[in-house]
Amino acid sequence: MRERMIVALDFSTLEEVKQCIEPLEGHIRYVKVGMELAYAEGPAIVSYLKEKGLKVFLDLKVHDIPNTAKGAMRSLARLGADMVNVHAAGGIAMMAAAREGLEQGTAAGAARPILIGVTMLTSTGLSTMNQELMIPGSVEDVVVHYAMLTKQAGLDGVVASPLEVPMIKKAAGYEFVTVTPGIRPIGADQGDQTRITTPEEAFRLGSDYLVIGRAITNAKDPVATWQSIVQTVEADRK
């Protein structure tokens, strides 16, 4: 289960990352590098984390014309990340081009990174989607639609709220990977997320990977918080 729980490193400097992960070494297995950290530290941050023996989800949400997305993924493939993503809203042609670029950039004999599509950000609620983005329908219907476009483009799975995972699995198949942010252990601050669950609930709903950030990285005792989450999840799975 530890390899399926990804700790989000929502920092802007390498020094902050070191302060966070050094106490957690030997406990965590997978981390997420988002835009803030990647833009601040560049490709070297991925190398540093890989040298620490960690798997890396490089969360840059590529969204551009197909040719640019293809080139971006070709470059990202060379960094050694284990998972990368695009915005499903970019459409089938863009997502397919991104997959092709990722395959082209992956070294011979190496497994290409897992490629997933972002459906709807977990900070986006119905009102924002309908009124601001002018996308009609329910959040759930739009997420499943994006998931099916993602599958049609040949990607491995999607990023979505845990609440939408059962519908995605039903529509796209059990093997279709679901990566779920919006994870909050009991007692944790909700922050800017609106579609959230606890870690054990997310796994019960069928999530393949959980992304957990501030609940761990902002905790007074990150190791104790991590161990508590792991114990709760493992007890729930028995």
TrEMBL record:
InterPro entries per UniProt: Aldolase_TIM, OMPdecase, OMPdecase_AS, OMPdecase_bac, OMPdeCOase_dom, RibuloseP-bd_barrel
Instruction: State the PROSITE patterns in the record.
Output: OMPDECASE
A Pfam family of the record is OMPdecase
Listed SMART domains: OMPdecase
Q: Which GO terms describe its cellular component?
A: cytosol
The residues listed in the UniProt record as binding substrate, with positions renumbered to this chain, are: 10, 32, 59-68, 122, 184, 193, 213-214
Choose any GO biological process term that the UniProt entry carries and state it.
'de novo' pyrimidine nucleobase biosynthetic process
Keyword Lyase appears in the UniProt entry: yes
The EC number on file is 4.1.1.23
The record's listing under Gene3D superfamilies reads: Aldolase class I
One GO term in the molecular function aspect is: orotidine-5'-phosphate decarboxylase activity
**What residues does the Orotidine 5'-phosphate decarboxylase domain cover?**
4-229
Active site residues per record: 59 (for ompdecase activity), 61 (proton donor), 61 (for ompdecase activity), 64 (for ompdecase activity)
CDD domains found in the cross-reference section: OMP_decarboxylase_like (cd04725)
Q: In which pathway does it act?
A: Pyrimidine metabolism; UMP biosynthesis via de novo pathway; UMP from orotate: step 2/2
**Broad class of enzyme this protein falls into:** lyase
Query: SUPFAM superfamilies, per this entry?
Result: Ribulose-phoshate binding barrel
Please list the reactions this protein catalyses. Answer: orotidine 5'-phosphate + H(+) = UMP + CO2
UniProt KW keywords: Decarboxylase, Lyase, Pyrimidine biosynthesis
- Asked if the record carries the keyword Lyase, the reply is yes
Q: Which family does it belong to?
A: Belongs to the OMP decarboxylase family. Type 1 subfamily.
The task this protein performs is described as: Catalyzes the decarboxylation of orotidine 5'-monophosphate (OMP) to uridine 5'-monophosphate (UMP).
Q: How does it assemble?
A: Homodimer.
Provide the protein name: Orotidine 5'-phosphate decarboxylase
Organism of derivation: Brevibacillus reuszeri
